[in-house]
Design brief:
Blueprint: E1 2-5, E2 8-12, H1 22-26, E3 34-42, H2 49-59, H3 61-64, H4 66-69, H5 77-94, E4 105-106, E5 109-111, H6 116-129, E6 133-134, H7 141-151, E7 156-159, H8 165-173, E8 178-187
Parallel strand pairs: 4-6, 5-7
Antiparallel strand pairs: 1-2, 3-7, 3-8
Helix pairs in contact: 2-5
Length: 196
């Protein structure tokens, strides 16, 4: 077997090696240079229709179609279904129902510069659906985003890694309940050409 980069062979793969492609990244067979990406939503922010509608759009087929457009790998159908189910359950637990029609307000997003291209693309397209919602994306880094999140200065923290135990403790101390939503996969060695 040979791996390819942009159609050119780059060498033989050792026996048992898994070549990076969209399918092996999605299924988790290829792990060394890929990682899940997340958004963390403050559960108190689910009372804000703008936040609910933004996250719904992010997880929608339209929102998820933006993931590969900005160079990342979409979650598998099972993974995105699980993420959507987590969100729906959180809405039910909070007694939140879908907004009817246009909403307005602000969605405060900060965190990972790795996740920012996805969130920025979602925000831009979401503006076409909900033009009265402001959803600016900050890039303080995952740790900086969690600091804002714990202070209550962000509704959503973009994260290129799972929340750390120290951040969980800080959320608990600040009485911040959160919802962890996987949204994409980053192939850390991003190809210059589309994945085979």
């Amino acid at each position: 077997k040979t791996a390819s980069a942009g159609g050119a062979a780059v060498g033989a793969l050792p026996a048992g090696a898994v070549a990076p492609n969209e399918e092996t990244i999605k299924t988790g067979q290829y792990k060394p240079l890929s990682r899940p990406l997340f958004i963390y939503v403050n559960k108190a922010s689910l009372k804000k229709p703008a936040v609910v509608e933004y996250v719904k759009y992010y997880l929608s087929d339209e929102g998820q179609a933006l993931v590969p457009e900005v160079g990342y790998v979409s979650l598998s159908p099972e993974q995105i279904a699980d993420t959507r189910q987590r969100f729906d359950q959180a809405l039910q637990s909070a007694g939140v129902s879908a907004a009817a029609g246009e909403v307005d307000g602000e969605v405060r997003i900060n965190g990972s510069s790795t996740v920012a291209p996805i969130s920025s693309a979602v925000s831009e397209e979401f503006r076409n659906v909900q033009p009265k919602v402001r959803a600016a994306v900050g890039t303080a880094g995952t740790s900086g985003g969690f600091k804002d999140f714990v202070r209550g200065d962000a509704d959503i923290c973009d994260a290129s890694r799972p929340i750390k135990s120290s951040e969980i403790e800080a959320c608990t101390a600040a009485k911040i309940e959160y919802l962890e939503l996987p949204i994409a996969i980053e192939p850390n060695a991003r190809p210059l050409a589309p994945l085979p």
